[in-house]
Amino acid sequence: MSITINTWNDIDWGETRSNVRKIQYRIYKSRLQGDLKKVHWLQNYLINHFGAKLLAVRQVTTLNKGKSTAGIDRISTLTPQQKLTLATELQIDGKTVPIRRVWIPKPGKTEKRPLGIPTIKDRAKQALTKLALEPEWEAVFEPNSYGFRPGRSAHDAIEAIYQGLHFDTPKWVYDADIRKCFDMISHDALLEKLETFPLMKTQIAAWLKSGVMEGYANTTKEVLGSTAGTPQGGVISPLLANIAMHGLENHLKDFVAKLPIKPHPGSNRGETAKRKALTVVRYADDFVLIHRNKQILELCIERVKEWLAKMDLSISEEKSRLRDIRGGFLFLGFQIIQVKRLKKQTYKVKIQPSVKSQQKLLTKISDLLRRNKAASAYQVVTMLRPVIIGWANYFKYCECKNVFSKLTNLIFQKLRAWVFRRDTRSGRLKIKQKYFPSGRTYQFAGRTHEDEWVLVGRSKSKGGEVSERYLPHIVWVPSCKHVKVQGTQSPYNLEQGLYWALRSARYSPYPLRVRTLLIRQEQRCPWCDRQFTIFDASNWEVDHILPRSTGGQDMYDNLQLLHKDCHIAKSRVDGSRNS
């Protein structure tokens, strides 16, 4: 495709996205119809489409969080002209260069895990490849696979587990962890499973077998070979891991359907009943099997081990366990347990934030306060607010009220100690009024709260304007019910556009402010007048119509939701920030 663009800032990203999505929709539809020849033709067309190359370069150089991390070439940032040059020269050619490996600590552990960092050029090539491969595989991925997929989240996985357990009958659960999944996947088995055209296969094989350097190209000459696994840190690695694990759910469902054993006393012997009796929920390399019959579940576990062996994978026995759900288990940070109602003598499923997750939050807050003993209250509120509210927004889709109430008190104790430690000259009442002013009301999540112990910080600009911020209590975040994504619904299916539009506004785990603006704006960006889609969700930004620097208020009447690139373009016009 021939497009004439003078500068990077001249690109109409809305039009570019729209053109690429149209090709992806066709790939998805062709795969649903089983026309692999057309799928491969469209994928080859897409990887040579200039608009797709522009999107790939923009994703890895502008939008991704790790955009400033350098590979072995030490290049971490590009000028607009360099980005345009990279997009022009970008080509899937079956070649690659070694990745830079760094070691990062595992959360809450002393051991570390390797993170592979490709060069910017390789990251752009991987992003381009993902644009072509993802719609094909979204057409065939299993319904209860939730990790690293568009329109799906950890909350969908938790809700799927709830639906498998909420009947008034204790069940058996096998929560499994695959030993070093990303590091051990068989290259040959994965490439065979891809069933893609030669050039794509050659390129992915090159990435899988690319060497590893422990430093930069000009500081070390030792290149370590790679014989298995997908490097953690690559743009395409999560997709490849999902492809490697694809088929497990259907394999187990087919297996139990043929067993001569009834799922439980009173059930029929039909294949449909046997399939429904088994719940399989997978999030990346972690998965859960649920069944009422322990004998059947034990057979499924052996079957899982045989299936994984074909990919050179194995179960981590020390991290996996078969247990009665009444003993509870942990998954994705939640504690899931079935408890007995004493009055009714029936069972209910209880899901709440795990003790470990709570401790991680408190430790993070303590560390932040300890490192910022001399910071102002305004700065501390600015640092703590996204940590606390982000954690609460993740865990609000469960029975969290009592946990949030307990955490509110524990966090307050830490804040109170920080305040009285940093100001020892004033009287305690004066200090209290300075940092925790009395007689104030606060608007949060559409509700008014009155509280005497809310941390408030103030900051004065060079122009003398005073701005104020407060730290909401975590208990102010209300509990919500998450609605699980239906079956095999995919954002790549144009026929399901209405479903995804309604889901984004009503049932998505977006912040309240974003959901409210989506509804007010009828899911359209007022700057480019294009529809918001699930693919853009990570790049939506809330903008102040009249910039706060010129007196604009932080109120809904002065807010709008924009695409990130639209926000940047608007900021160039109103001068609210440099872009």
Automatic annotation (TrEMBL):
Keyword NADP carried by entry: no
Question: What gene does this protein come from?
Answer: orf579
Alphabetical list of SMART domains matching this protein: HNHc
Which keywords does UniProt give here? Chloroplast, Endonuclease, Hydrolase, Nuclease, Nucleotidyltransferase, Plastid, RNA-directed DNA polymerase, Transferase
* Source organism (scientific name): Bracteacoccus giganteus
GO MF: endonuclease activity; nucleic acid binding; RNA-directed DNA polymerase activity; zinc ion binding
Q: Which InterPro entries match?
A: DNA/RNA_pol_sf, Group_II_RT_mat, GrpII_Intron_Splice-Mob/Def, HNH, HNH_nuc, Mat_intron_G2, RT_dom, RVT_N
Q: Which Pfam families match?
A: GIIM (PF08388), HNH (PF01844), RVT_1 (PF00078), RVT_N (PF13655)
Q: Where is the Reverse transcriptase domain?
A: 85-336
Quote the protein name from its UniProt record. Putative reverse transcriptase, intron maturase and HNH endonuclease
Q: Does the keyword Hydrolase apply?
A: yes
